[in-house]
Amino acid sequence: QAEQKRRDAIKKGYDDLQAIVPTCEQQDFSIGSQKLSKAIVLQKTIDYIQFLHKEKKKQEEEVSTLRKDVMALKIMKVNYEQIVKAHQDNPNEGKDQVSDEMKFNVFQGIMDSLFQSFNASISVTSFQELSACFLSW
């Protein structure tokens, strides 16, 4: 009885995998439906899990890119707000000029964002790690 329960549990596990994994859907043939072998079910499950891992990695990279874009846009917004405020305070002064302070603020915002990205992505425990991380950064 214990052995039968074990075999039933294994069979149920394979049936559940076959139902969950899209590439394991039952194939209907003219004779009727034919079950996939356990080896095929396992291989298709492995392939599907690998596909999901790749998709997750792509989505994480996209989220990271979008976060960087949001950070850049926030910096630009703050800088534009400062420019507008400076113009409102002195509407006639330096119509076609941007002050050195404003240029520095823009530069500082960009460099702060780059440093945060660099600091989060780069390992400096060894020169080899630094080189490898820097190229991917």
TrEMBL record:
Q: Name one Pfam family in it.
A: HLH
* One of the GO biological process terms: positive regulation of transcription by RNA polymerase II
SMART domains listed in its UniProt record: HLH
Entry's localization field: Cytoplasm; Nucleus
Please name the GO terms that the record assigns under molecular function.
DNA-binding transcription factor activity, RNA polymerase II-specific; protein dimerization activity; RNA polymerase II cis-regulatory region sequence-specific DNA binding; RNA polymerase II-specific DNA-binding transcription factor binding
Q: Name one GO cellular component term.
A: nucleoplasm
Q: Could you list this entry's UniProt keywords, alphabetically sorted.
A: Activator, Coiled coil, Cytoplasm, DNA-binding, Nucleus, Phosphoprotein, Repressor, Transcription, Transcription regulation
**Chain segments annotated as coiled-coil in the UniProt record:** 49-76
How this chain assembles, per its entry, is: Efficient DNA binding requires dimerization with another bHLH protein. Binds DNA as a heterodimer with MAD1, MAD4, MNT, WBSCR14 and MLXIP. Can also bind DNA as a homodimer.
Role noted for this protein: Transcription regulator. Forms a sequence-specific DNA-binding protein complex with MAD1, MAD4, MNT, WBSCR14 and MLXIP which recognizes the core sequence 5'-CACGTG-3'. The TCFL4-MAD1, TCFL4-MAD4, TCFL4-WBSCR14 complexes are transcriptional repressors. Plays a role in transcriptional activation of glycolytic target genes. Involved in glucose-responsive gene regulation.
Which named protein is this?
Max-like protein X
This protein's species is Apaloderma vittatum (Bar-tailed trogon)
